[in-house]
């Protein structure tokens, strides 16, 4: 939506604070001498923060081999973490179907048909190398000045350099269109955006301090080492001069020219031979011209890579081959997963759940790998053995054991609810009989038996009539579970069905008859005892 005059002033105020090119015009920035910036940044990039700084860092990163390599490793690591849209309740088939269809739609419609992965990789790239952060527009129907009507259709990446943050909560981002040059304000529900290390200063509108910005000087040091080696070795400098006595300047220049021609004929590109000059006297002096300063390049580079891994939140093994034990590898892997991937996925998941996905779905990032699966299996086995010991000792009731399994993640909550219903209890441990007195109209309508005032007064009710009415209500419960799209309605129908099954079992237990052979035997008179008494009297 084009920017209206009422919003124009707010944007201009933001530009006044950040500069026309995004440079920070804060009081503190003007107090630092310009020469200090040249020393600290090598006269390459503007100070924090400005859009020009983001653009210069992105451009110069391509010439810094180590930084571009770290950026590739981090971007690939984040982009390859599987992202799934899953239902909040796995027991509802319609929600499962919605998750499948919606995932396909977002995957194919995003970036105007180019796919979600392309927009996602660009989004991650801005997150890693732009202090302004990463931006993604949500595509959907409805007035652009308001929220999306219906389900969002997909997403597209927005160039961070063309996005301006505002202090307007309704329109937090203004985007400058590359085709017509006009600025359009974006409704908060139509844009996903966040940054690394957002600034605490209110005037910065949550501009951050990205990984590339934190590591740029270190990358420049590594790049300078490479340039130093290339300039030292690649220009074919003369290494030595052997000088005899009585040599004039003309002969010295001629000797160097002859040496250059000889090296060209030999095809030498980097190594230079010794230049020799002599006179009548055979006494010579040797002058070194090119001394390669000794320094431990391997150690310096390795320490810099360690620092880059720490700054970017990566495992050192993502950047450099490092040997270690199995246990240390596992620890390092878990620590690395807890930094950059965890930080990025947590922010992105919150935005996806709130703005892109319907209420029935959530975003899920799958961090699991073989080592983690093995660790999870081992932990589950230890917990199972512990519960088994407590149960044998009589210290753990079955319901308490199941609750512990749910809390530990070893049992799904829906499975626990079904198990409790099978045992004759609700999830909180209340008996199913209480549902026949429930004030909930849905449940009371499903368990109400026609013509029966109180089904739990067993002696006042006819078993055949009760069982017939129970079967009718059971059919109603099954019909509601099959036709309703509401998870709440299905849950109530499931509880009512379990209560009706429980009631039928109670009537079967109350009206059990004594076997026929025992009934006849119990009513006969003790004839033998009477005969014995008569014999004694006689």
Q: How would you sum up this structure, described in words?
A:
This protein is mainly α and about 550 residues long. It has helices at about 5-20, 25-30, 35-40, 50-60, 65-80, 95-110, 115-130, 210-235, 250-265, 295-310, 325-335, 340-355, 370-390, 400-410, 415-420, 440-445, 465-485, 485-510, 515-525, 525-535; strands at about 85, 135-140, 150-160, 165, 175, 185, 190-195, 240-245, 275, 285-290, 360-365. It folds into three domains: about 1-230 and about 295-365, no CATH class; about 240-290; about 410-510, no CATH class. It has 20 helices and eleven strands. The radius of gyration is 40 Å and the shape is elongated. The relative contact order is 0.08.
How large, in whole angstroms, is the Cα Rg?
40 Å
Principal-axis shape equals elongated
Helicity level: 40-55%
Going by helix content, strand content and strand pairing, the class is: mainly alpha
How are the strands of the biggest sheet laid out side by side?
3-2-7
What count of structural domains? Answer: 3
The total count of helices amounts to 20
**What are the segments in which pLDDT stays under 50 over at least 5 consecutive residues?**
15-42, 518-528
Residue share in β-strands: 5-15%
Q: How many strands in all?
A: 11
Q: Average pLDDT across residues?
A: 79
Biggest sheet statistics: 3 strands, antiparallel
| Spatial gap, N to C terminus | 121 Å
Task: Note the topology.
Blueprint: H1 5-18, H2 27-30, H3 34-41, H4 51-61, H5 65-79, E1 83-87, H6 93-109, H7 116-129, E2 134-141, E3 149-158, E4 163-165, E5 173-176, E6 183-186, E7 191-194, H8 211-234, E8 240-244, H9 249-266, E9 275-276, E10 284-288, H10 297-312, H11 326-337, H12 340-356, E11 361-365, H13 370-392, H14 398-408, H15 413-422, H16 441-447, H17 463-483, H18 487-510, H19 516-523, H20 527-537
Parallel strand pairs: 8-9
Antiparallel strand pairs: 1-11, 2-3, 2-7, 4-5, 5-6, 8-10
Helix pairs in contact: 5-7, 5-8, 5-10, 8-10, 16-18, 17-18
